[in-house]
Specification:
This protein has 434 residues and is of the alpha+beta class. The protein contains ten helices and 29 strands. The chain is globular.
Length: 434
């Protein structure tokens, strides 16, 4: 979905993409850009999430600090838009309306009486573009009867969470209505540091109140305007939403991945890493990933947050520790863990190098399955090709590099008394890690 968002804006006259994300996702985001062969303007790492108003403020303040005052198009990365040409055409119309300091939002023309979305009530039509209106009010997610009345009136659009405005216009309104958020974000950017290609706001950002842009600015400003979007939009906030937008078979089933389905109806089955077979299911969602499996009635998938809460309360790690972990040089995936051993699949990007390091508690075996590996081990330096292997004794100083033009894949077997990621002593590192 992130890549789709990047592709969606390619036909627009944009200078750069700013991404605000959690620091845990930094290498994953960078990898998405690399896979798309695209460059970013800035990757800004929040030390903790504080909702959309502070996140947007960080990006706006970063641009202002660079001496710029760009028009910012704010896009969540998890939206589906079917008609991208119409979307870009509406964005271009909106550009003409934000030059004088207006704060633009895009309202989705509702297709049904939806209780899962917030709504925006239209105000007066604008002389500059009768298709656009002022914003009368933002409305919380309604009950079914209220949603139907909104639909029948024709006065309400779904709240898309897509905005556009000049950086200075947004910051002026934020400072006026939420000076505490503005103050903390301004200090966090002023004291930010550059870590490789990532911008790290100062730790004072942790003191920032958590507020959405709706609550912090858009519900209070007198400069809010709205353009309608009728583009086949869907906020993919649940697995049932994916079922809605996907091509279904004659019985309403959506099967993604390695799936065998027999006598099922209106069911979504998503298989990421293995065969999933289903028999006689109806109105269910089955999601298989290497981390966990979810089975839910379609009407209950919005409540997956309750499962996540229970996982946290039981001090489990599935909500934050995944089998695939991204690093600046590539990624690794845990294949199997047992007593005193661990098996990983390591992928090293072309031209990338891991740190020069050693381990106190484990030895390692490396088997190349694709590409060429350059290996340093103590005073030796040599290359390994596919189906070749080497042994890294406990306590040896070693480093792994990919000198080739294709990804390097190898299997690493760790053996020892302790196999944690913190058993790494780094001597040299291209990425500045200690």
């Amino acid at each position: 979905m992130f890549q789709h968002t990047l592709n969606r804006i390619q036909s627009l006259s944009l200078d750069a993409a700013y991404v605000v994300c959690n620091e845990e996702h930094r290498f994953l985001v960078a990898e998405q850009f690399r896979e798309q062969d695209q460059e970013w303007g800035a990757l800004i790492l929040e030390p903790a999430g504080r909702n959309t108003a502070p996140a947007i403020a960080l990006a706006a303040l970063h641009a202002i600090e660079l001496g710029q005052d760009p028009v910012m198009l704010i896009l969540p990365a998890d939206h589906y838009i079917k008609d991208q040409n119409s979307f870009c055409a509406q964005v271009n119309k909106g550009l003409e309306l934000v030059e004088n300091g207006e704060l633009m939002t895009f309202g989705i023309v509702p297709e049904r009486a939806e209780t899962g979305y917030g709504y925006i009530r239209k105000g007066e039509a604008l002389a500059a573009n009768p298709e656009a209106t002022t914003v009368d009010s933002f409305v919380e997610k309604p009950d079914a009867d209220t949603a139907q009345s909104y639909l029948d009136s024709g006065e309400y659009l779904w709240n898309s969470g897509i905005f556009m405005f000049r950086a200075s216009a947004y910051l002026a309104e934020l400072e006026s209505f939420c000076p505490d958020i503005y103050r903390v974000c301004k200090q966090a950017i002023a004291d930010s540091t550059l870590d490789l290609d990532f911008h790290r706001p100062a730790a004072c950002f942790l003191d920032c109140p958590s507020q959405s842009i709706d609550y912090a600015v858009m519900e209070h400003t007198k400069r809010g305007v709205m353009l309608p979007l009728d583009v086949g939009w869907n906020d993919l906030g649940s697995w049932s939403a994916l079922w809605d937008i996907s091509e279904q078979d004659k019985r309403g089933n959506v099967n993604i991945g390695d799936v065998i389905s027999n006598n099922c109806s209106n069911t979504l089955v998503y298989a990421q890493s293995r065969l999933v077979a289903t028999l006689g299911l109806s109105n269910l969602v089955v999601i298989e990933t290497p981390d966990a499996i979810l089975i839910s009635d379609k009407s209950e998938v919005q409540n997956v947050k309750d499962i996540v809460l229970q996982i946290k309360q039981e001090a489990r790690t599935e909500h934050e520790t995944h089998t695939r972990v991204y690093r600046p040089w590539g990624s690794y995936e845990t294949v199997e863990v047992g007593p005193r051993y661990q098996v990983k699949r390591i992928t090293v990007s072309p031209g990338s190098t891991l740190s020069l390091q050693m381990h106190h508690h484990r030895a390692e075996h490396w088997i190349v399955v694709r590409g060429i590996a350059e290996v340093e081990c103590d005073d030796k330096k040599f290359n390994l090709s596919e189906n070749e292997s080497t042994y890294i004794p406990l306590g040896s100083t070693h480093r792994l590099s990919n000198p080739g033009k294709m990804e390097l894949d190898l299997i690493e077997v760790q053996v020892g008394s302790y196999l944690g990621e913190d058993d790494i002593v780094r001597f040299e590192d291209d990425y500045g890690r200690g």
